[in-house]
Automatic annotation (TrEMBL):
Listed Gene3D superfamilies: Homeodomain-like, Jelly Rolls
Keyword Hydrolase belongs to the record: no
Record domain HTH araC/xylS-type: where: 160-257
Biased composition regions of type Pro residues, renumbered to the chain: 1-14
Full protein name: HTH-type transcriptional regulator RipA
Keyword Transcription regulation: yes
Chain positions covered by the region annotation Disordered: 1-31
Organism: Streptomyces paromomycinus (Streptomyces rimosus subsp. paromomycinus)
GO molecular function list: DNA-binding transcription factor activity; sequence-specific DNA binding
Keywords assigned by UniProt, alphabetized: DNA-binding, Repressor, Transcription, Transcription regulation
Length: 263
């Protein structure tokens, strides 16, 4: 890929407070530590997959999604697979047109092409062209953001004890009652906390966690069958059904898109 207009920050090092726009390839497992920006920031993986984590949880974005972080929110990024990462500033005076909290947006073909141009190395063809393209980006993002790949986290100690156990081993088949005995809370209490604190059932939260791990494995080239086993599904069909519901495409088509984008 040609060099970017502005170099990306080094992985695993804090970034400056003014977020850069630009593009670059990062190796699998690259990590940008927690930081914040004066401006808003869109991050798009044109190839590969990225995860953005804030105090509100983690958002995972494959190539059909884009993460949004408003000004002032501390956040970190992790990249899975060799990632063509695109960072795009959103000036403060435009941030009010987008949601006020970190989120994930679906990426339309028009949005993808506009972001690729704005983060590429080609000079502005005419005065004001980049500003007009940025307005297109804002218009494309004006619809309700896609939330299905958001994994929320709780500040409740009992619930955090349970989610920490699941983070440590997403493939485990432990029931909520069994997890509750370790965390010192009853099954009914934990079930209620999942709904009130995280806005979803225990089953949905664990499924979303497993999808996050499945995306990382698939991006790094693991087969669908091996991914299913590694993430706790009893067979590939169960993974395919859950993956299609949450991500919007089958694991096979997701890997095919990754290969095409890399080429």
């Amino acid at each position: 890929m040609p060099p970017s207009r502005h170099p990306l920050p080094e992985p695993s090092k804090p970034q400056p407070q003014t977020s850069p726009s630009g593009a670059g390839w990062l190796p699998h497992g690259s990590h940008m530590v927690s930081h914040s920006h004066v401006q808003g920031q869109l991050v798009y993986a044109a190839a590969g997959t990225l995860a953005t984590t804030t105090e509100r949880g983690t958002w995972v974005a494959p190539a059909n999604r884009m993460t949004w972080t408003p000004p002032g929110f501390a956040h970190s990024h992790r990249f899975y697979g060799r990632t063509d990462v695109r960072l795009l500033n959103i000036p403060v005076d435009l941030c009010g047109q987008l949601v006020e909290h970190p989120s994930v947006f679906a990426v339309s073909p028009l949005l993808r092409e506009a972001v690729l141009v704005l983060t590429g190395d080609r000079p502005e063809p005419r005065p004001g062209a980049h500003q007009r393209l940025l307005a297109v980006v804002i218009d494309e993002l004006s619809d309700t953001p896609e939330q299905s790949l958001h994994l929320p986290e709780s500040s409740d100690d009992r619930l955090r004890a349970v989610t920490d156990l699941l983070h440590a081993d997403p493939a485990q088949f432990t029931t909520l009652a069994e997890l509750g005995r370790v965390a010192g809370a009853g099954e009914r209490t934990l079930s209620r906390l999942f709904h009130t604190e995280l806005g979803m059932s225990f089953h949905r939260w664990r499924t979303t966690l497993r999808i996050h791990h499945a995306l990382a494995h698939l991006t790094n080239g693991m087969s669908v069958t091996d991914t299913a086993m590694a993430c706790g599904w009893s067979n590939p069909t169960s993974l395919i059904e859950a993956f299609t519901e949450i991500v919007g495409q089958t694991p096979g088509s997701y890997q095919a898109d990754l290969l095409r984008n890399r080429r």
